[in-house]
Design a protein that fits this description.
four-stranded mixed β-sheet, elongated, five-stranded parallel β-sheet, Rossmann fold
Length: 280
């Protein structure tokens, strides 16, 4: 027999409600999940017993896990949670994701973390049917952790070549070429580039060698597009300063101070992200 302490601390279960109301476990379950098939007098008796015992209803997590589907999509990033609300790109992407989820009645779970340990836990514990990965930073880690969950996922802006990953991106070369061509057509010939990261944990002016060996293909491809357009206008691309930022305010301001300290400052800046552009 359970002690009084155990009975006081043990959570109330559906079986307890069924016993108190004098009905079967199945009938009590139907009162909460399919009330239309239970007689009104029985429903009222079960509900009265539940209210008297402080029982709010079955745990929805258990029902969802038994069904094998939670009808929610996880949107994951290695950025802080505020990224989803502060970054213009993230807001635009979330608007599109929300529209698709509204059309199907699915929910959205935002998954992020300030460090790798919490990120791993958040992805492993998220109650979702699959993931959309914002691979702006740390894309390989996001893919690795999500694969461990064995749930379907799609990567956005993966940043590196991997034919085994379902990924959606943009034509970085063509888009960058259009941006640079526009500025050159306006008559500009002195440019500077505020770039996204080439690799993890580095900022500052970038050497031509680093441009060629950039870890992130999105950054490298945008530079290729810029330089292709400039070459058509006879601009010496070797003389264009490229400053690597961390896509935040501090490193962008440092880049601005550096490029405008030169004897011939630029008349036009190419910024690789909305966040960088707004700071600049």
């Amino acid at each position: 027999m359970a002690s009084s302490t155990e009975s006081n601390t043990r959570p109330i279960r559906l079986a307890d409600i069924a016993k108190a109301a004098g009905v079967s476990h199945g009938t009590a379950s139907n009162v909460f999940s399919r009330p239309e098939i239970v007689r009104e007098e029985v429903r009222e008796r079960v509900k009265a017993a539940a209210e008297a015992m402080g029982y709010a209803g079955p745990d929805p997590k258990g029902r969802l896990l038994r069904a094998g589907k939670v009808n929610a999509i996880g949107v994951a990033t290695t950025e802080p949670l505020s990224y989803f609300f502060d970054d213009p790109f993230a807001r635009a992407m979330m608007a599109g994701i929300s529209e698709a989820c509204d059309a199907t009645g699915a929910g959205i779970a935002l998954v992020s973390a300030g460090n790798q340990e919490k990120l791993a836990w958040n992805i492993q514990s998220a109650l979702v049917d699959g993931f959309i990965l914002f691979c702006i930073e740390g894309g390989s880690r996001l893919v690795e952790l999500t694969r461990e969950r064995k749930l379907p996922f799609v990567a956005l802006e993966l940043g590196f070549d991997d034919d085994t990953v379902s990924a959606i991106g943009v034509d970085n070369v063509a888009g960058a070429r259009l941006a640079a061509h526009h500025l050159a057509e306006l008559g500009h010939r002195r440019f500077a580039i505020l770039s996204l990261p080439f690799a993890d944990g580095s900022t500052g002016l970038v050497s031509p060698e680093k441009v060629r060996t950039a870890l992130y293909t999105g950054t490298r491809d945008r530079l290729i597009g810029y330089f292709e357009a400039f070459s058509r206008f006879g601009v010496d691309t070797a003389g264009i300063p490229v400053y690597e930022t961390e896509n935040d305010e501090a490193s962008t301001r440092a880049g601005l101070e550096t490029i405008f300290a030169s004897a011939a400052p630029p008349t036009a800046i190419l910024a690789m992200s909305d966040r960088i552009a707004m700071v600049a």
